[in-house]
Amino acid sequence: MSEESPMSKIKDEMPVLVRHEGDWIGSYTTVDNNGKILDQNQSHITCEFPEGKEYPYFQTNRYKWADGKQEEYQFPGMYRDNALWFDTERIEGKAWEADDSLVILYFSYKDIANAYIYEMIHLSPCNNHRARTWHWFKDNQIYQRTLIKEERKL
């Protein structure tokens, strides 16, 4: 019997993650512990599961700010042990499913010492709406949150 491909394993073992495939348009709002807005931007996220490629998961994040600033980042992911693992020049971390609508992501930016983020990603039953929150910790103390609202680009 042949070994199952990483994409087949993700489809079987992380069905909620697979439901995120496609393009998402939304907004990010980062607030401090008192709710003061620190940053706001628009986003376009693409989640892909390319067959036969080096990485079974590939995400592209595009951000735009009102002042014209733009950024784009790629996040290839590897699948093992019922989790999606990231290790890029920018971040390292892993994502796993909590239930039939929720993915949890733990990651850290490699250029921010003693800091990490827990992200909750909630996908609606219709698969067209996502609510995401990032809880930012430094020295194990929360110092800000990012609130993300997205809709599937049809």
In angstroms, what separates the terminal alpha carbons?
Answer: 39 Å
Strand order of the largest sheet: 1-2-3-4-5-6-7-8-9-10
Q: Structural class, please?
A: mainly beta
Return the string of H and E elements.
Answer: HHEEEEEEEEEE
Radius of gyration: 16 Å
Oligomer: single chain
Please tell me the overall pLDDT.
94
Biggest sheet statistics: 10 strands, antiparallel, barrel
List how many beta strands DSSP finds.
10
Tally of DSSP helical segments: 2
Low-confidence stretches: none
Task: Give the percentage of residues in beta strands.
Answer: over 45%
The 3D shape can be described as globular
What level of helicity do the residues show?
Answer: under 10%
Describe this structure in words.
- There is one protein chain.
- With 154 residues, this protein is mainly beta.
- The protein has two helices and ten strands.
- A ten-stranded antiparallel barrel has the order 1-2-3-4-5-6-7-8-9-10.
